[in-house]
Amino acid sequence: MASLSLPKHSLPSLLPTQTPKTPSNSKNLSIVPTKSSQSQFYGLKLSSYASLSIPSAASALKTSIFAKVTKGGVPPSFTLKDQDGRNVSLSKFKGKPVVVYFYPADETPGCTKQACAFRDSYEKFKKAGAEVVGISGDDPSSHKAFAKKYRLPYTLLSDESNNIRKEWGVPADLFGTLPGRQTYVLDKKGVVQLIYNNQFQPEKHIDETLKLLQSL
């Protein structure tokens, strides 16, 4: 019977070695108020894969806690473009109550719920003599499409630089990574009578603002 003789090399050494490759097209997860992604949650717009970089607690506190506008105070004025590209100033609404609500971004689930809830109760706001104004970092064309799609009867303003959000001291959420959802009610004299913050129950903003307006 013939015998099989193997060379001294071990079998694994005869096999080609391969170094696992890291996929080059993986993306970092980011939280951005744009329309570039399909995964959305209450103002979050997420790209796929990888890890989230969280700012330090100190920097988060620095950027997200200290409110500049307080109840009983007069907030900084502003002039911003609306969904039709026209300049709108806060002073335009003096002489009547105004609800100014800051929200993270157009077309996100939470923001859409909130916008439609304001729409559905708009007649109640009108009956109270109040105007409703929504503000986010989206541009006027985004606001126009958003307002048209959901038949929003009120003004949406573009704070693309987020300067007004900062001047009013709107607190951010998720360690400063998510633009905050905060509503202000100003009386006829432009004095703040209510500040309401609730990121994850957007429709509660309507209940709280109407309750306050009906007591003025």
Structural account:
This protein is 26% helix and 18% strand. Residues 4-17, 19-41 and 46-66 have low confidence and may be disordered. The strands form 2 sheets. It has a 7-stranded mixed β-sheet. The protein has a two-stranded antiparallel sheet with strand order 1-2. It has a domain at 79-214: Glutaredoxin (3-Layer(aba) Sandwich). It is an alpha+beta fold. The chain starts with 10 loop residues before the first helix and ends with a helix. It has helices at 11-14, 57-64, 109-120, 122-127, 140-150, 163-168, 204-213, and strands spanning 39-41, 44-46, 79-82, 87-89, 98-102, 131-136, 155-158, 182-186, 192-197. The chain is built from 7 helices and 9 strands, in the order αββαβββααβαβαββα. It is found in: Plastid, Chloroplast thylakoid lumen. GO terms for molecular function: thioredoxin peroxidase activity.
What ranges have pLDDT less than 50 throughout 5 or more consecutive residues?
Answer: 4-17, 19-41, 46-66
Strand order of the largest sheet: 4-3-7-6-5-8-9
Radius of gyration: 26 Å
- Specify the CATH architecture of the domain at 79-214: 3-Layer(aba) Sandwich
Enzyme class: oxidoreductase
Domain Thioredoxin: 69-216
Organism: Davidia involucrata (Dove tree)
Catalytic activity: a hydroperoxide + [thioredoxin]-dithiol = an alcohol + [thioredoxin]-disulfide + H2O
